[in-house]
Design goal:
62% helix, two-stranded antiparallel ribbon, 119 residues
């Protein structure tokens, strides 16, 4: 199995699982996050490959490069840019529901957030 096939499969599953939450999130912040992560990947993966920190097996990649980074490398920032906001949203909802709908800053009805840390 090549990296491209694995990347497409993982991104497909991630999008299917995250779709219900993604629909409720604002789109532009997620898009800008992904764009910035892609630019950082372009620059730093190219540099790391250039200095020899890591290399890819030619049989596992398509051979398409963007500035020096294989195209398969760009699936990871896409997955992170989509998955992390969804995970943050889901875990935040669980925390708030476990607190009984308490305040967003972690303060309980009887004390401050600092009191909760000491407990």
């Amino acid at each position: 199995m090549t990296n491209a096939v694995l990347n497409v499969a993982v991104l497909g599953v991630l999008l299917l699982v995250c779709a219900p939450v993604l629909r409720r999130l604002r789109g532009w912040p997620v898009v800008w996050t992904v764009v910035h992560l892609l630019v950082l990947t372009l620059v730093f993966d190219t540099l790391m490959i250039e200095v020899g920190l890591y290399a890819y097996a030619p049989s596992k990649i398509l051979g398409v490069y963007l500035w020096g980074a294989p195209i398969e490398d760009f699936a990871y920032p896409i997955a992170a840019g989509i998955g992390m906001p969804v995970l943050w949203t889901v875990l935040g909802r669980r925390r708030r529901s476990a607190e009984g709908g308490g305040s967003r800053h972690g303060a309980s009805a009887t004390g401050s957030a600092a009191d909760e840390v000491d407990e």
